[in-house]
Amino acid sequence: IEDMIRRRAVFVYKRGRNEELRFLLAARSPGVYIRRRVYIRRIQDRDRRNLESLRNARERESEEEARLSKTLADLAEARNQRARAVERATRLVAERKAEAATLERDRGRLADLLADVRQNRESLSRMIAEREASAKQVEQWIASLERQRLQGEVQEIRLDTRGAQVVVHPVKDFGTFASAEGKLPWPVRGKVISRFGLEKNRLTGTFTENPGIDIAAKEGDEVIAVQGGRCTRITYLRGFGTTVLVEHGDGYYTVYAHLGEVWVSEGERIVPGRVIGTVGRSGASASPRLHFQVWHKRRKEDPLQWLG
Fold first, then answer.
1. What CATH number should be reported for the domain holding residue 224?
2. Which of 96, 113, 191, 193 keeps 20 to 30 A from 216, CA to CA?
3. SS3 (DSSP) at 196
């Protein structure tokens, strides 16, 4: 149709717009004129139909092109979306793999940590049991000393200190231990890391009784006798390590434990401020410290109530 319309247009262009009129006027009779007019009208009708068909075809073509362009655009967008989805999926897979690897490492670290905690709990339980046994041992010593004191069985004081390392810090002598309450010098300078009485252990969740206080200090720091008296016991306990017991008279006693070195002897007379040894980490102690106790007769006293 398009080719036919093209040829028709060329024909009309070459012959001019008055060709049809000349064709009609050249008729030799009315009958010929009428036939020629009918013929021209048919040609015109056919031209109009052809033009309408061409216009419709062009519109359909345009619509088809538009649909095709939209389809191509949709396909391109679908490809882009799919590429983005594949990229996201690839990234998610990589992230999940990384998370799984991290989780596996964390699981391994957690297992190691749980094993360490379990081992530490067991070690701590043993240390607590050893300290409790040592505390009972000290309590038995003091009970024995109290019986001897009440029965008048006082051991002879040994004054011979030849060859012993004697160092005395200048501290006040209160005369009687009872009069020094709240004013005693500290046996060693440091930070109190465990107080007197019941304490809850954060690791085991159990309560244990501390018969004294624990003072964190540097290993090798000198430990002094808070008042004068007599060294009645030097021994090693599994829980308290190297331990020194000093009797001050009138039923008062002090205990110094976790010592590294001991510079006094059993039965030796002790003056106030006398260095009895050094801070250590002996016994059930994870770090350098001094365990310090105060007793009156068979009753444990809070050392912080006595120290100045």
1. 2.70.70.10
2. 113
3. coil
Given a cut of 60, whether residue 1 has pLDDT beyond it is no
Total structural domains within the chain: 1
- The answer, yes or no, to whether residue 267 has pLDDT greater than 60, is yes
Q: Is 135 a member of any domain? A: no
> Residue 275's closest CA among 257, 258, 261, 293?
261
7: region left, alpha or beta (phi > 0 left; psi from -120 to 50 alpha): alpha
**Max CA-CA distance within the chain?**
176
Q: Tens of pLDDT along 216-242?
A: 999 999 999 999 999 999 999 888 999
Rounded CA-CA distance 194/287 in Å is 13
Task: Read off the pLDDT of residues 22-51 as tens digits, 9 standing for 90 and up.
Answer: 666 666 777 777 777 777 778 777 777 777
Domain that holds residue 198: 157-305
- Which residue type occupies 71? T
| pLDDT at residue 302 in the model | 97
Whole-angstrom Cα distance, residue 267 to residue 265?
A: 6
Looking at residue 163, its pLDDT comes to: 43
Percentages helix, strand, coil for the chain, rounded to the nearest 5? 50, 25, 30
Do the domain assignments include residue 7? no
> What is the value of pTM for the model shown?
0.59
Does residue 239 belong to any structural domain of this protein? Answer: yes
Contact yes or no for 263/279 (Cβ under 8 A): no
pLDDT digits (tens, 9 = 90+) for 284-307: 788 999 999 999 999 999 999 999
Quickly list DSSP for 219-248. TT-EEE-SS-EEEEEEEEETTTEEEEEEEE
In a domain, 60, yes or no: no
Contact 236, 280 (CB under 8 A): no
The Cβ-side half-sphere exposure at 162, using a 13 Å CA radius, reads 1
Q: Which two tokens stand for residue 154?
A: 């006082």
Which of these, 229, 223, 268, lies nearest to 241 by C-alpha position? 223
